Task: structure prediction
Amino acid sequence: MSLAFPLHRNESPLPDGDRETILAAPGFGQYFTDHMTSASWTAEAGWHDGKVTALAPITLHPAAAVLHYAQEIFEGLKAFRHADGSIWLFRPDLNARRFAHSARRLALPVLDEEAFIASVEALLRADESWVPSHDSGMSLYLRPFMYGAEAFLGVRPAAQVSYHVIASPAASYFSGGGSGVTLWVSSTYTRAAEGGTGRAKCGGNYAASLAAQVEAHENGCHQVLYLSEPGRGYLEESGTMNLFLVTDERELITPGLGTILDGVTRASVLELAAEHDLKAVERQVGIDELRERCASGSICEMFAAGTAAVITPILGIKGEGFEQVVGGGEPGGSTLAIRDHIVGIQRGRLADSHRWLRRVV
Ligand SMILES: Cc1ncc(COP(=O)(O)O)c(C=O)c1O
Result:
């Protein structure tokens, strides 16, 4: 039998008025709901003790493996309220599968797909009042994560592991980047290498990305555009999003999988391409090709795709000694149409013809 997550209700939830004040302007990742999901794993007992309880701090031994060796993975997915009040998840099965992939890469125990989805749904049912209204343009962001909790010093997989899900009401991800972003092509840092952890969603990848993000901000850019080699080679992805290029011949090009994250939004965009008269192409794109074709206009749109910001137009790229406007510095028509299509499905305004939504409430 799969792991169950019984609810032990928070006896002191945030008062309704305070919650409504937060939901009026939640920002991103700043406020958290009344509950959290938890489960434990040990080598002897496997997964056990699933539950939903009041949100509370976690106690860790100072020697907990995660604090020293970064044995940690996470996921991010959103719940949407529709006009009839119902609440839906967008493709949680893909997050469950990616979480299992990340677990294997980090030598953490796999939580099966059924238990992963049950853990998210249990929290969502407990905190359904935190899902913003259908017309707010907002959602409830869910963050499952797992880490080595065993107390020991030494490099080996932890024999004691903890799993949680927390939730945070979410407005727009990029402050000030609403109509589009510029990306910094780092000549100093890469994100991942063959055989490394690029395709896993592990905290260590993001820790290693922070210096590059600081560099991007210092150069007036919103995010980093990672290449396969510092300043050279092939496009990989952005800090928290996959990359797409639209050509004047109606090709929709995205870097193939390998060292990048297998994004849920990326997969969805690829599946929608034909409906937007675009031919989906997964292939390597060199930074020189990108610069030349943006300059000539044969790459006429560029966008980034990810759960947090959905589809974000990329209006320019910048690096050591160059600056290149993309698409005349305006969001492209296909970019906006694909964004409207995905958001329309997520919010129940367009038919879910691909069966991507899963009703929870
Ligand atoms: C490095 C990276 N690439 C791509 C993505 C986009 O993935 P998804 O569409 O599943 O959110 C994310 C966000 O999860 C990310 O952190």
Q: What stands out?
A: The chain has eight helices and 17 strands. The longest strand covers residues 160-170. The mean pLDDT is 96.
